[in-house]
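2024-03-11 09:14:02 DEBUG pipeline.ingest accepted 1 chain
2024-03-11 09:14:02 DEBUG pipeline.ingest length=407
2024-03-11 09:14:03 DEBUG pipeline.predict start
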Amino acid sequence: MALPSPVRRGRVPARTADLAVTAVVTAFVAGWTVLSIVSAPAGSEPLSRTVLGWFLVTVGCGALLLRRRRPVAVAVVTLLTSAVYYPTSSYDGPLMVTFALALYTTAAEGRFVAAVALASVTLLAVGLGEIRQDPGRRQIDDTSLVMLAGWLISLVAVGRAQRTRLAYLHEVEQRALAAEREQEARARQSATEERLRIAREVHDVLGHSLSLINVQSSAALHRLAKKPGPAEALPAAAEALEAVKATSKDALRELRGTLGALRQSDEAAPTAPVSGLDRLDELVGRARAAGLDVTARTEGTPRPLPPALDLAAYRIVQESLTNVTRHARARAALVTLSWTDDELRLRIEDDGEGSPDAEARGSGLRGMAERARAFGGELTAGNTGHGFEVSARLPFTSSLTTTRGTE
């Protein structure tokens, strides 16, 4: 399985990194070789062998471009070019660096067995070649051979360690993503279950009682139609109204109990009128009392809104000012209501510190976004460079359609 290396995770594209590494290694090998040729006596080797040496340098360095896509093949090619280069060239350039890098890449890309095999073949080939040489003509002594073995083992071990590290980081990243997806799925499931539970509670509380009220009202009207005389009609109407009163009282009591379970235990039952933009001045006054310099501005011509949309707009402004007061450390805020023929736009700006994470979304912002989407609109929030801004768009057409559909 291919693992995302630090290069592949977005820091630097893999192809760009390979080009850079290849260019650096090529410059190092070519520069060293040129210095060896310049410092060597004239006529150290025939021109044909020099040309062959440069050809092998070109092939070995150029193969590094494919070291991630074909690590084993590149390691074999660099080993073969080194095996041909050193016995034939008199200048002994550092072409072995290409094989060392290719061997490390082979181990780092997960081809551990191939890397061990190539290192073993290299060590055996060098050892056998030196054993077959006459005692006075050896190119590598025993100490150098041991050092070569240590370098080969180190390259494979470091590559293996890098592979293990990348595998660990990849596993941690996948676990974090899985945990995040699971948390989001649980949150969505919990929200859906809570909505369904509330809907069932409200349906159970109101459905039965309203049905009874409808039946009792219809029966009263039927009796009044049959008995138009006041002496007979009034008792029938009074009986029906008493039944309606009792049923509605029970319905209100059950509904109050259901809503009380949804509120905090220490939260009092609401007694104020339904909130709307007509109470915006009270909301601004409370924010000013908390020490925030709030300015409300209106653009365009205000118009009456359906109660649900009016409440949603009020709640968005309320939650935004609450967040500014609690978290933004702002001194001033501006609330702008832009009225057009088709929609209402809300904009709440502050001069605070903004959000440390522009992608973070708390429950308050999510709740405001859900309110806007419920009416076919949208809500955005983010840093502005000099504070934080919440912007919402609430179209009138969708809200009117929604309101009429629920009547």
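2024-03-11 09:14:41 DEBUG pipeline.report The first strand starts at residue 293 and ends at 299.
2024-03-11 09:14:41 DEBUG pipeline.predict end
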